[in-house]
Sequence to fold (307 residues):
Amino acid sequence: MSILRADSIRNREGTGAPNLPNGVTVTGVATATSFSGNLTGNVTGNASTATLATTATLATNAQGLTGTPSITVQNATVQGDLTVNGTTTTLDTVNLVIEDKNIGIGTTSSASNTTADGAGFTIFGGVGGDKTLTWERGSSSFVYSDPNKFKGVLETVSAATTYTSGNNLVLELDVRNATTYTYTIPTGANIGIVSFKNMPAFTGNANGTTITCIFTQNAAGTGNTTGTTGIGTNCTVIGYENGAAVAGISTRALVGSGTTVTLSATSNDRDFVSFFVHYTGGTNTTATSYQVYATKNGGFRQGNVGV
Fold:
């Protein structure tokens, strides 16, 4: 028999589809409402649980596909997880909407400051140059390729800490923690050393950091009120590079009056002392690579008019 003509083919009992144990070859177009098994060639329709052995172009929905097909779809919805293994993933879309509030990049089995170095975002700028926001390991900072414009800045204010070194009371200001600090001078004590901890000092890259401390005078009005005990008489700078602190240096702050910054001798007055720590980019364990500047706005106290 070379030609079979029939409107309907059923099994012997007439209750279902016939059994074709040796398979079937279709040289033309086959239309089916469902399919189970291996599929070779081009598919139009719903290929449910089909395994594509070669290239298939799916006009509508494709479910349960395996193998190495090249698939082109008009719209796709992934109900479960999507894993893409490849070198480059390109999203050629006008709008990208992501529900997740946190996006992780630079993933690796052993993440570190080294693997994170240079990670960030690039906005292609064409002739004007790309715009980037990247993490720089050396300075442990985020680096912007272009200036920033903010409507407002909310800055962390931390309480300064102290410790004793020999006969000196050391005021420690951790630059990585905050750049604005508060400190109340204890009765009968003077700040002997101001220490700037974790100052970014990436060799070869000059930078500067402004640190402000709000000092509240003690009840006796005796803390750091003379030139010899003024703030900035002795400063320590401990640089920070490649995720670790380097050996610190000692220096003296430069002030506009040519002496040190002294605090108000009035009980409980507040003085705002701002330090600008300049790293020149030289050897970050050498004193000549750092300059500390100090200035003060002081004598603030609560007024009695309108209160």
The CA atoms of residues 162 and 171 lie 5 Å apart. DSSP finds one helix and 19 strands in the chain.
